[in-house]
UniProtKB/TrEMBL annotation:
<keyword id="KW-0442">Lipid degradation</keyword>
<dbReference type="InterPro" id="IPR029045">
    <property type="entry name" value="ClpP/crotonase-like_dom_sf"/>
</dbReference>
<dbReference type="GO" id="GO:0070403">
    <property type="term" value="F:NAD+ binding"/>
</dbReference>
<keyword id="KW-0276">Fatty acid metabolism</keyword>
<keyword id="KW-0520">NAD</keyword>
<dbReference type="GO" id="GO:0004300">
    <property type="term" value="F:enoyl-CoA hydratase activity"/>
</dbReference>
<dbReference type="InterPro" id="IPR036291">
    <property type="entry name" value="NAD(P)-bd_dom_sf"/>
</dbReference>
<feature type="domain" description="3-hydroxyacyl-CoA dehydrogenase NAD binding">
    <location>
        <begin position="284"/>
        <end position="460"/>
    </location>
</feature>
<dbReference type="GO" id="GO:0016853">
    <property type="term" value="F:isomerase activity"/>
</dbReference>
<dbReference type="GO" id="GO:0003857">
    <property type="term" value="F:(3S)-3-hydroxyacyl-CoA dehydrogenase (NAD+) activity"/>
</dbReference>
<protein>
    <submittedName>
        <fullName>Enoyl-CoA hydratase/isomerase family protein</fullName>
    </submittedName>
</protein>
<dbReference type="Pfam" id="PF00725">
    <property type="entry name" value="3HCDH"/>
</dbReference>
<keyword id="KW-0576">Peroxisome</keyword>
<dbReference type="InterPro" id="IPR006108">
    <property type="entry name" value="3HC_DH_C"/>
</dbReference>
<keyword id="KW-0456">Lyase</keyword>
<feature type="domain" description="3-hydroxyacyl-CoA dehydrogenase C-terminal">
    <location>
        <begin position="465"/>
        <end position="558"/>
    </location>
</feature>
<dbReference type="Pfam" id="PF02737">
    <property type="entry name" value="3HCDH_N"/>
</dbReference>
Length: 687
């Protein structure tokens, strides 16, 4: 039963109870409608509605969005609550989000617990509030606050909600406080729907639209929410509610909502495989290497309460590592994530030393040193010698072969890859790389650390670049092919920014440094297929010292002050390389640039799926969105491919394959899905 009703004297207590977060499904809507009638059949002077467990209500059950709306519809239920002659009070004990917030807004009064949150985050699922949120919120807290709350979907805490006028009080025990409200006072509160709509404020609407263009580029729902609120000012409540509902239903069936719901549920499904043992307890972590990544990993671990022994090679390394971690702590203080005392606690839990023996109490050691196999082997030999036999050993390598690293240790079953993404304390993706001999305990430790750090864990097999970097390498390779064929870096970047990336591949390259790709290509020289097309433009950039931001010149020039400018010399350099290669360049239309880059990534990702490097298409979506900036509102690379259509993708790939059968060999997984009319998201390895 997802709605429980109990009478106590003149008070009716209604509890929303659908674990774990009281999502509002059909049963709860029906239960609420019956609760209105139940309360009106008794001699009550109020109904207090609250949530069981840690939430008030997490909103409409998004699992129901794929199907047609089922009666009773939430707007009708809330209309019954709002017009009931027994006034309802919302005792907001935990998160009241989306439809959960709308239940509260339809109540006559709202009392929040100090730790509760209230919000209308529907745009994060590609829809807008569909049960009165747009119309009731702006009547209660005014246009500007309602626009911010709805267009950006960020919840409010209790203090802010009280100040905004969304709630009447903040009390330690909201249920008890609701029961103490003076009946006369309660009856004097005007039902929300009877409140006047706010005056038109042109400036507020243009400001929010300007803000949306910067903060939510490409997303449709936020703009539709603003349109509904703007139109609502000129309509009566019922007409405005009808417009809101129609807009919600329209968006719910749209591509962006399907994509964002796919991401929402895929992210929550990213957990340790059910057959793994429980994660061993982690209290102390050793991190080897105090450079940017190592310091970021150390800081991430410190921030969740772990102790860290940060290992360096010598006194200079210790000094550098100390500076790097301190810089992150100071940044945390500046951003208000830390205060002086919590910063001191972090410092007290950190030891930075060149003595590996100091790390002997660590459950896990994470190597984040220079990306060279010999360096890693040497470090793992030292870890092997210094740490207990049950300490799990992880490498943060971005590309290198975990099995080769493990082979040098006494017990390869305790070796795995934990691939963090820079900045390691901010980026949520963690690729958990399973070597041929990685044991379950090591994997359980990896997933346990991911949960502690609130990372999105994705299990990956061993190959060059695992999941993300392998796709990214193919993306970068195709981009350079496009340069040779006629494009220029800034065109390619503009095309992919228009697609929804925050940055195109060339700006990203300048940010991370062109020497990283150069080193990887040199590492791959010995094994590269001699028949595979190779473009030396990026190599020439590095040979000429154009490494990107770190040398103030790369694909762009960086004249100082953070900006970037196009460098016409690049066009000459590309033209010269094309001349040497005997290639006649020609202008390439934007849609061809975009297609070739997306097809290259999709084909590579399908191979990664087919080889079992990734366990599901959804995992690849998580990697591309959380690690590489693929637009979330497109659902990740594989969801996007399914929405595009696998049959059309394979047709286009076949044409490219005819031109270059090595680079564009069509993935068997794509061919199989196209032939079977199957979505990539549904593809499963045989056996
Ligand atoms: N629908 C279905 N399932 C949901 C859900 C929802 N709205 N919210 C959470 N779950 C599941 C989730 O998949 C997970 O399942 C479990 O609950 C715990 O969630 C009409 C149309 C509330 C802050 O956007 O933000 O209302 O993995 O792991 O970290 O206008 O869940 O255990 O099987 O996230 O403590 C608007 C979405 C909906 C809020 C809790 N509401 N939820 O975070 O737990 S649209 C939202 C959240 C709407 C109305 C419109 C978070 C949370 P499983 P969790 P958490």
């Amino acid at each position: 039963m997802s709605v429980r009703c109990i009478q106590d004297g003149l008070t009716g207590f209604v509890t929303l109870d659908n674990p774990p977060v009281n999502a509002i499904g059909r049963e709860m809507r029906q239960g609420l409608l019956e609760a209105v009638a139940w309360a009106e059949g008794l001699n009550l002077d109020r109904v207090i509605v609250t949530g069981a467990g840690r939430a008030f209500a997490a909103g409409a059950d998004a699992k129901e969005f794929d199907g047609p709306p089922l009666e009773p519809y939430l707007p009708d239920v809330l209309d019954a609550i709002e017009r009931s002659f027994v006034p309802w009070i919302a005792a907001i004990n935990g998160v009241a989000l989306g439809g959960g917030a709308e239940i509260a807004l339809a109540c006559r009064m709202r009392i929040m617990g100090p730790g509760a949150q209230i919000g209308l985050p529907e745009v994060t699922l590609g829809v807008i509030p569909g049960a009165g949120g747009t119309q009731r919120a702006m009547r209660l807290c005014g246009l500007e606050t309602a626009l911010e709350l709805i267009a950006f979907g960020k919840p409010m805490g209790a203090k802010a909600a009280l100040a905004a006028g969304l709630v009447h009080a903040v009390e330690d025990d909201p249920v008890e406080a609701a029961d103490m409200v003076n009946t006369e006072e309660l009856l004097c509160v005007v039902p929300t729907w009877e409140l006047p709509a706010p005056e038109m404020d042109v400036a507020a609407f243009s400001a929010v639209r300007e803000n949306l263009a910067k903060r939510s580029p490409g997303q449709i729902a936020p703009h539709r929410a603003v349109e509904v609120m703007e139109a609502g000012l000129g309509l009566d409540f019922a007409e405005a509610m009808a417009l809101e509902r129609a807009t919600f239903l329209d968006l719910k069936s749209g591509d962006q909502s399907r994509a964002l719901r796919h991401m929402f549920f895929s992210e929550r499904a990213a957990k340790a495989p059910a057959d793994l043992p429980a994660a061993p307890q982690i209290t102390q972590v050793a991190v080897v290497g105090g450079g940017t990544m190592g310091a970021g990993i150390a800081y991430a671990c410190l921030s969740v309460g772990l102790s860290v022994v940060l290992l360096e090679t010598d006194a200079d390394g210790v000094a550098r590592a100390t500076e790097n971690v301190e810089r992150l702590i100071v940044a945390g203080l500046k951003r208000g994530r830390l205060d002086d005392s919590s910063a001191e606690v972090l410092r007290a839990r950190l030891v930075i030393t060149d003595d590996y023996g100091a790390a002997s109490g660590s459950s896990l050691a994470i190597e984040a040193a220079f990306e060279a196999m010999e360096v890693k082997k040497e470090i793992f030999a030292k870890l092997d010698a210094a740490l207990p036999a049950d300490t799990i050993l992880a490498t943060n390598t971005s590309y290198l072969d975990i099995d080769e690293v493990a082979a040098g240790t006494k017990d390869p079953s305790r070796v795995l890859g934990l691939h963090f993404f820079a900045p390691a304390h901010i980026m949520r993706l963690l690729e958990i790389v399973q070597g041929a001999q990685t044991g379950d305990r090591a994997l359980a430790m990896g997933f346990g650390l991911a949960k502690l750090l609130k990372k999105v864990p994705v299990l990956a097999g061993v190959c060059d670049g695992f999941i993300g970097n392998r796709i990214f390498s193919r993306y970068r390779e195709e981009a350079d092919f496009l340069l040779m064929d006629g494009a220029v870096p800034w065109e390619v970047d503009e095309v992919m920014e228009a697609f929804g990336y925050a940055m195109g591949p060339y700006e990203v390259g300048d940010l991370s440094g062109l020497d990283i790709g150069f080193a990887n290509r040199r590492r791959q020289d010995a094994t590269r297929d001699p028949k595979r097309r190779y473009v030396p433009i990026a190599d020439r950039m590095v040979n000429e010292g154009r490494l990107g931001r770190k040398t103030s010149v790369g694909w762009y020039r960086y004249p100082g002050g953070g900006g970037k400018v196009v460098d016409p010399l690049i066009e000459d350099l590309i033209a010269e390389e094309a001349h040497f290669a005997g290639v006649t360049r020609a202008e390439i239309p934007d849609d061809v640039v975009r297609e070739r880059l997306l097809l290259a990534m999709i084909n590579e990702a399908a191979n990664i799926l087919g080889e079992g490097i990734a366990h599901s298409a959804a995992d690849i979506d998580l990697v591309t969105v959380f690690g590489y900036g693929f637009p979330r509102w497109r659902g990740g690379l594989m969801h996007f491919a399914d929405a595009w259509g696998v049959v059309e993708i394979v047709e286009k790939l076949r044409l490219l394959e005819a031109q270059d059968p090595v680079v564009w060999a069509v993935s068997p997984v794509l061919a199989e899905c196209a032939a079977a009319g199957m979505a990539l998201t549904d593809w499963r390895a045989k056996g």
